[in-house]
Specification:
The protein is α+β, with helices and mostly antiparallel strands. The chain is built from 2 helices and 9 strands, in the order H-E-E-E-E-E-E-E-E-E-H. Strand 8 and strand 9 form a beta hairpin.
Length: 180
């Protein structure tokens, strides 16, 4: 009975700790005058391209900050670190770029930006696997840049033919019962 009570109390404590972080963040934001955030307070951060391989450069932009505002972007989840968004060529939009880290694993990651006026914007980036790189080494097939050596091809074909003839001869000899 005592063990079950301990497990229940531990589960309750862990649940409270999990919820304490967001609640503490909301209380701290209220203390700094940022207000309490409700669902939908986050604007859209457009990420282009929407999917990228490690090492690719990605552009992020948002209209949340206004045309004359700035923002600090956060792409640390994909190894891109922090980046700056500033007014771009499109009206009322701030834009910035970051590079996806080479060691980033495939998956969907959230990229965020905080405007100078305190507004937030988020968007998703899908990281894909590395594509094929370099020369494909497939042998004699079309993936090579060099021509096949006809002498080697003929020698290989001769060895295969001799093996097939010898194997057939041995199997027929064994089936007939001849041993000499």
């Amino acid at each position: 009975m005592r063990r079950r009570t301990t497990h229940a109390l531990t589960a309750t404590a862990l649940t409270c700790a999990a919820f304490a972080g967001p609640v503490a963040g909301a209380v701290a934001a209220a203390d700094f005058g940022a207000g309490i955030f409700a669902p939908g307070d986050f604007a859209k951060l457009e990420v282009w391209p929407r999917s990228a391989a490690p090492g690719a450069t990605v552009t992020a932009n948002t209209a949340a900050c206004g045309g004359h505002g700035t923002a600090d972007g956060d792409a640390t989840m994909v190894g891109g670190g922090r980046f700056r968004l500033a007014p771009g060529t499109r009206k009322e939009v701030v834009t910035g770029q970051f590079k996806v880290g080479r060691g980033t694993r495939p998956g969907t990651y959230e990229i965020g930006a905080t405007c100078a006026d305190g507004r937030f914007a988020t968007g998703d980036l899908v990281v894909t696997e590395h594509g094929p790189q370099g020369h494909v080494r497939t042998g004699v097939g079309g993936g090579t840049k060099t021509a096949a050596d006809p002498a080697r091809v003929a020698a290989g074909a001769a060895v295969l033919a001799a093996t097939a003839v010898g194997g057939t001869w041995l199997l027929r000899r064994r089936a007939s019962g001849t041993r000499s």
